[in-house]
Specification:
Structural class: alpha+beta
Strand order of the largest sheet: 1-6-10-9-7-11
Number of helices: 5
Radius of gyration: 19 Å
Distance between the termini: 62 Å
Oligomer: single chain
Order of helices and strands: EEEEEEEEEEEEEHHHHH
CATH superfamily of the largest domain: Competence, DNA-entry nuclease inhibitor, ComJ
Strand content: 25-35%
Shape: globular
Largest sheet: 6 strands, mixed
CATH topology of the largest domain: Substrate Binding Domain Of DNAk, Chain A, domain 1
Helix content: 10-25%
CATH architecture of the largest domain: Sandwich
Number of strands: 13
Length: 255
């Protein structure tokens, strides 16, 4: 067994494990911790931005069942990579961990701490992740949930107002800093109102400036966040793909 530990930067509730330059927008399956695609798996985090602690274990065979007393969620899928596998932020910044050799692996991911600071920006690690990989022949990239006791990324998480009915509510001020306000203040009520729009969470300042983002967010909130987080060349490629797939205005539907 080879085991390494390090810190990865979280951006827009995500980080990625896979080939360098993998197109992580090309998702084929997802759970509440993992999503999979060609040459990568990406992680859903509780925090929106900041560092997270991750341990990567390269095993010879499948591990024992997840320890439910230690980990709050565990999911499993298959990762096939033609080049070495690295841990990186969504902008491609690679974490300081040894790469995993190319190959097909069954992967099992574990997490804890995602509920404690959900949606916040942190300056030190408050969440822990474990990724176990072992050689596999199964090509099925479906994400299977083995155990889950946290609420992060559950269907009701981002629209459940009870998560805001606390003594304090965290909001992002006009300066960009994260501040707290009283639970029944106008600012907190505004956050509650926005949680019912745009797929369940407020738009970032950059997305707010693009009026059409509101419509896209209402259809697929995760997609609009990933488009914003993608590198400029990925955004351009995605825009071209959309243009080619869109029907021509005024085109006849007949032969």
């Amino acid at each position: 067994m080879k085991r390494s530990e390090g810190i990865v930067s979280v951006d827009h509730h995500q980080f990625v494990v896979g080939e360098r330059g993998a197109e992580y927008l090309e998702t084929v399956s997802h759970g509440t911790l993992l999503e999979s695609g060609p040459g990568f798996v990406s992680f859903y985090t509780g925090i929106a931005y900041g560092p997270a602690h991750i341990t990567v274990s390269l095993l010879d065979h499948a591990p024992a069942d997840p320890n439910q007393a230690v980990w709050e969620v565990a999911e499993e899928t298959t990762l096939t990579a033609a080049s070495e596998i690295v841990v990186s932020a969504t902008d491609g910044t690679v974490a300081d961990l040894p790469p995993v050799p190319a190959g097909r692996y069954r992967v099992r991911a574990h997490a804890r701490g995602r509920d404690r600071h959900y949606g916040q920006e942190v300056d030190h690690p408050v969440e822990d992740y474990l990724l176990e990989l072992w050689p596999g022949t199964n090509a099925d990239t479906t994400v299977a949930t083995l155990h889950k006791s946290d609420t992060a990324w559950s269907p009701q998480t981002q629209v459940d107002e009870s998560s805001l009915n606390k003594d304090r509510v965290y909001i992002r001020a006009g300066s960009g800093a994260v501040v707290t306000v009283p639970a029944q203040s106008p600012e907190a009520n505004a956050v509650r109102a926005k949680l019912k729009e745009f797929g369940g969470k407020p738009l970032t300042v950059a997305l707010e400036a693009v009026f059409s983002s509101r419509y896209v967010a209402g259809l697929d909130r995760d997609l609009i966040d990933r488009v914003e987080a993608a590198a400029p060349q990925q955004q351009l490629a995605f825009a071209r793909w959309c243009i080619h797939r869109a029907p021509l205005s005024g085109a006849s539907a007949g032969p």
